[in-house]
Write a structure and sequence with these properties.
Layout (H helix, E strand, L loop, with lengths): L13 H10 L4 H6 L1 E5 L4 H15 L3 E4 L11 E3 L2 E2 L2 H20 L8 H15 L4 E5 L16 E4 L7 H4 L3 H9 L7 E4 L7 H9 L4 E5 L2 E9 L4 E7 L2 E8 L4 H21 L5 H14 L7 E5 L2 E4 L5 H15 L4 E5 L7 H8 L5 E5 L8 H11 L4 E5 L2 H14 L3 E5 L2 H11 L11
Parallel strand pairs: 1-5, 1-6, 2-5, 6-7, 7-8, 8-9, 13-17, 14-15, 14-17, 15-16
Antiparallel strand pairs: 2-3, 3-4, 9-10, 10-11, 12-13
């Protein structure tokens, strides 16, 4: 959408991006006051979607910036649940691209990255549309991510996993620290449950900036969980505020963590921005917003016969959590796995978390960034030596083969290992062409 490289050149991009925001006349003070920032290794998109849905349920005009998109670029920029339309998006892209060109003419010699331009576009879009609340999902990390320029005093770290270690550090403590830096001084970071072992480290890391930490599992409690195929019901306590009988339709135990974070973020934001708001109305908005949240690609049922479920998780912890959710909702037996892993991921590690749970595995390659299916097959074989492993290097062949195998036995189909394989599989199954998808 922007004729720019994925990452900018000339060093860390915060300074050049600040110039771009100024050139677009972004009111940074208002941006800070009206924004929530979502960081983390897994669960960012779902948590952001929960937050935006709660804001809409309260009656706030709510913007949502997420990445990557799954099917269309427009998905990254939403207001009140609707992606930006093509005509307006084209106009916004032109304005941002023109501002970048003007900066180049005025001595800014560094090259902007595409994500930086997209972030600026989201800021411009939400400002001009008068959003009362804007929810921003970070790209990578937090210390040098564009979202740091928001200066948000309410952020979260949904979870931590070993990802982008060359950029973020080679330990969970370093990665959690980097993501915490999206929060401005005197702010609050809400941490997901798997950050709890890092609580002491994070408290000291944040101390000098007077940033407070609030953890799921300590300060935020989840209880009375009941899971069915239709929904998950639970109680949540945020400090002294009790939210009973909440419901979400996104599956997986990890989604309870994400929903609790979103509820807490909204409660704290309302206390700062609207301290006189009616507590009953806030409670109703949280309930309705969580219940009405839909987010594609997360343990999503894309076909009923045979039952076919996709998940876009792409880190070891992400695929492991999703698999647990799959089993909790749909049972452990009679599954066939379609496995694909991106070439820049650790195939053996992803395969170790998935392959041992499936007797039949179809290994394939996504058109976008996919590792060779034979390499994926090798990883699956090492992880589960007795499984029946099929190799289908073309996505179309993987869809056809897996559906045939599922109908013959019969079996259920689970597509996992990475975002691209899940979305391409769904596209082909619905009659589309995987190679026509355009990812960032």
């Amino acid at each position: 959408m922007f004729n720019l490289p994925k990452y900018g050149t000339g060093g860390i991009g915060l300074a050049r991006l600040a110039l771009l925001l100024d050139a677009l006349c972004i009111d940074r003070t208002r941006l800070q006051q009206h924004s929530l920032v979502i960081t983390g290794s897994n669960g960012k998109g779902s948590t952001a979607a929960f937050c935006a849905s709660i804001g809409r349920a309260f009656g706030l005009r709510t913007g949502l910036f997420t990445s990557p998109h799954l099917y269309r670029f427009n998905e990254r920029f939403q207001i009140d649940g609707e992606p930006v339309d093509d005509e307006l998006l084209e106009a916004l892209v032109l304005r941002v691209a023109t501002a970048i060109t003007d900066l180049d003419h005025h001595g800014v010699t560094e090259t902007f990255g595409a994500f930086e331009a997209q972030f600026a576009l989201a800021c411009l879009y939400f400002q001009e549309m008068g959003c009362d609340l804007a929810v921003f999902e970070a790209g990578i990390g937090g210390r040098y991510d564009p979202v740091r320029l928001i200066g948000a005093t309410l952020t979260c770290v949904t979870s931590v996993d070993l990802e982008h270690t060359a950029l973020l550090g080679n330990s969970l403590a370093l990665i959690a620290s980097d993501k915490s830096d999206a929060c401005a001084s005197h702010g609050t970071v809400i941490y997901g449950e798997n950050c709890l072992p890092l609580r002491a480290h994070l408290a000291e890391y944040n101390r000098n900036r007077h940033v407070a930490g609030l953890h799921v599992g300590d300060g935020i409690a989840i209880s009375s969980v009941v899971t069915s195929r239709k929904a998950q019901n639970f109680n949540c306590r945020v400090g002294e505020t009790k939210l009973r009988g909440l419901e979400i339709t996104l599956h997986g135990e990890f989604q309870l963590n994400n929903a609790a974070i979103a509820a807490a973020l909204f409660l704290l934001w309302m206390r700062r921005m609207h301290p006189d708001a009616d507590a009953t109305r806030i409670d109703h908005a949280i309930r309705a917003g969580l219940r009405e949240t839909r987010w594609a690609g997360r343990l999503e049922v894309i076909q009923r016969d045979p039952l076919t479920v996709i998940d876009v998780g792409h880190t070891p912890d992400g695929v492991m959590q999703a698999l647990r959710g799959l089993h909790a909702v749909h049972g452990k037996d009679d599954w066939l796995l379609v496995l694909g892993v991106s070439a820049d991921k650790n195939i053996d590690e992803i395969a170790q978390h998935l392959a041992p749970h499936f007797g039949v595995i179809v290994c394939t390659r996504a058109y976008h960034k996919g590792a060779d299916a034979r390499l994926v097959g090798g990883g699956a074989r090492k992880a589960h030596a007795t499984a029946r492993i099929h190799v289908a290097n073309a996505m179309e062949d993987a869809v056809k083969l897996s559906q045939q195998l599922a109908r013959t036995v019969p079996r259920k189909v689970y597509v996992a290992g990475g975002l691209f394989v899940a979305i391409e599989y769904a596209t082909v199954l619905r009659g589309g062409k995987a190679e026509d998808l355009q990812f960032f």
